Amino acid sequence: DRVKKAKNIEKIVVATSNSPENKSLVKYVNELGYSIYEGSEQDVLDRYYQAALLNGADNVVRITGDCPLIDSALIDEVIGRLKQAQNEYASNMSTPTYPDGLDVEIFSIDALLEANQKATSIFCREHVTPYIRGIHTQFETGNFLIGHVRFLTDLSHIRWTIDTIDDLERVRGLIKRLPDNYSWLDALSISTKIPNLLGPMLKSDAE
């Protein structure tokens, strides 16, 4: 619902694994009327490539399923950065400044093709973009034009991604307090008044 509000998205595809555990998700996505691709459980890079190829994508925007607070305006901004600067990859996460859980990446189909052909490590196959980003030099790396979107201050310590039950309950508590069609800045405003909605307290903060 939040991704489809982006003005520069042409098609939404859910790229999930072919694990039997995901059949209920596949059924639900089909009922919603969105495209879905079922690929490898472990080789997520190939899953992305096959989904992009099947749907005729020139560029692929990557939004992960653990980021329910994703903001359509941020999606459009990252897409704009790639197109304006003629980059092959752009994101708001290479130099993190936005809260964790607002991650947006976009890359060209040519960059995705090269990554799929040349990346061999388990890490690069599982995490999709390390080859393109070229930041993990202990693994295979490509050489692409990279664009960055940064916020005016560093808010990367805020955690709105969902990896644990505690994360889920915290994000649910935040969403309950937000208006319809909220922006991530609305979420930030509410969270500053209820600090536990910003994420788990860091050890250094507690000390």
Describe it.
With 207 residues, the chain is an alpha/beta fold. Helix content is 39%, strand content 12%. Helix 2 packs antiparallel against helix 4. The C terminus is likely disordered.
Throw out a few tags for this protein.
two-stranded parallel ribbon
Fold blueprint:
Blueprint: E1 13-17, H1 23-32, E2 35-39, H2 44-54, E3 59-62, H3 72-84, E4 89-91, E5 105-108, H4 109-118, H5 122-127, H6 130-133, E6 146-148, H7 165-176, H8 184-193, H9 203-206
Parallel strand pairs: 1-2, 4-6
Antiparallel strand pairs: 3-5, 4-5
Helix pairs in contact: 2-4
Sum up the overall morphology in one term: globular
Structural class comes to: alpha/beta
Order of helices and strands: EHEHEHEEHHHEHHH
What is the residue-mean pLDDT, rounded to a whole number?
A: 93
Total DSSP E strands: 6
Compute the number of helices.
9
Summarize the structure.
With about 210 residues, the protein is an alpha/beta fold.
